[in-house]
Amino acid sequence: MKDFVIFTDGDVDLPSSYEGKVSLLPQYYYFDENMIYGDEQILSREAFFEQLRSRRAYTAGVNPDFVRRSFETVLQEGKDILCIAVSSGLSGSYSMICMVAEELREQYPESGIEVIDSLSATLGSGFLCVDALEMRKAGKTLGETAAEIRKRVGLIDIFFVVDDFKYLVQGGRVSPSVGKIGDILDIKVILTMRDGRIEPYRKNRGINNALRNLQQITSSRKIARLGSIYVGNAELFEKCKSLVDSHWEASLNLIVSSHVGPNTTGIAIEWAAEDESV
């Protein structure tokens, strides 16, 4: 059976025990076009958030030349490729990776290249990568793994609460009209992803009610994987984690952090395939 390498991009977070087991296609962020971070240049989390307090962060998708070089290295070793990308509704990376993959299929007709739109981000997409790693370990082929991952895309959900909507609005991830909801005094909005895009899920009076509603979401159906996600606020994160009893966690990567801002917390869920309401 032909081996395959699993790739993902810089918008995706993996549980710590799986970091380094998936090949990363970096995305890029910058505050000034004269200094772009994400590949060879890395900014510490502390320095990043210090700048984010007073400056807007800009992001860019994967570099097609980097993708091409990374993929060709694998193909020349006689291996196939499975790439699980951040939602096409949030980034142009999926389209760019597909373009490179199509070119390489012509050059390497005997090789398999599968690119999957996760319709999610951060730990939600990361759960699909974990699934793929486990399927490969169990002896599944590239085709079998890709087919099953595409089925599981619909089982992934993310629910999260941001402290300030300005980051999502200025990055174009939500509309200004949605952002105005968050300006209402002490209203905390649980956001989710639908069809690969961020949408409001439920308005709450205060952060404690928002966290309790996250807890209720986790008890509505049978869960295969549950993880907590956060940016910056460890106390808020621990409170969320204790309420939902999550077994996985991820501190959001800097690409996602630039869009949601500090003091964000939430959950990523992979629902069980055979689930029923409980």
Describe this structure in words.
With 278 residues, the protein is α/β, with parallel strands linked by helices. It has two domains: 4-153, Rossmann fold, CATH 3.40.50; 155-271, Hypothetical Protein Tm841, Chain: A,domain 3 (2-Layer Sandwich). Helix content is 37%, strand content 27%. The chain is built from ten helices and 13 strands. A six-stranded mixed β-sheet has the order 10-9-8-13-11-12. Strands 2-1-6-7 form a four-stranded parallel β-sheet, sandwiched between helices. A three-stranded antiparallel β-sheet has the order 4-3-5, with helices on one face. A hairpin with a 2-residue loop joins strand 3 and strand 4. The longest helix is centred in the middle third of the chain and has 16 residues, at 122-137. The protein is globular.
Average predicted local confidence, pLDDT? 89
Tally of separate domains = 2
List low-confidence stretches: none
What is the general shape? globular
Q: Helix-strand pattern, N to C?
A: EEEEHEHEHEHHEHHEEHEHEHE
What portion of residues is helical?
Answer: 25-40%
Total strands: 13
Assembly of the depicted chains: single chain
Let me know the largest β-sheet: 6 strands, mixed
Fold topology:
Elements: E1 4-9, E2 23-25, E3 28-32, E4 35-37, H1 45-52, E5 58-60, H2 64-76, E6 80-85, H3 93-107, E7 113-117, H4 122-137, H5 142-152, E8 156-161, H6 166-170, H7 176-181, E9 187-194, E10 197-205, H8 207-218, E11 223-231, H9 234-244, E12 248-251, H10 254-260, E13 264-271
Helix pairs in contact: 2-3, 4-5, 8-9
Name the features:
Rossmann fold; six-stranded mixed β-sheet; Hypothetical Protein Tm841, Chain: A,domain 3; globular; alpha/beta; 13 strands; 278 residues
